[in-house]
Design goal:
By secondary structure, this protein is mainly alpha-helical. It has a domain of 98 residues. It contains five helices and no strands. Helix 2 packs across helix 4. It is elongated, with a radius of gyration of 45 Å. Keywords: Membrane, Transmembrane, Transmembrane helix. InterPro entries: DUF1003.
Length: 168
Amino acid sequence: MPELLTRRRLDQPRSHRRVTISVDPDTVGRISERLARFLGTGKYLFWQTLVVIVWIVLNLTAARLRWDPYPFILLNLAFSTQAAYAAPLILLAQNRQDDRDRVALEEDRARAAQTKADTEYLARELAALRLAIGEVATRDYLRGELDKLREDLDVARRGPKPGGATSP
């Protein structure tokens, strides 16, 4: 009797022993995308058309094999079942593609914003360099000034040129 009491205590909840199935949503999504991709191919349409033609021909011509007579109720049921599963699979695949497109678009926007910021920074740096170069003496300017100084020194050593002209 004490064993029974230790296994079944009324002051504690019973543990439920349910069988749980864990489904990975990513795996289901990948499988649905593969199915949706297959359902949209010419290969699938060819085989489905062939099955339907064989189904109808066998049910119209073979007297012993008529499992689905003329209104083809069973064939319609098969099509309805197929459509009931195909539509959600296709929608699931489209939703996954939309999610991937959204992530790619966000990455593209971020990349474009970074590129724009980098371009604006480089434009500002170029403008600053142009302003700085405008204030710095260039090589040609320095050569010209040195040539003038050399001429002035030559004039100062030799004296004024005949005719009284001096260079500025």
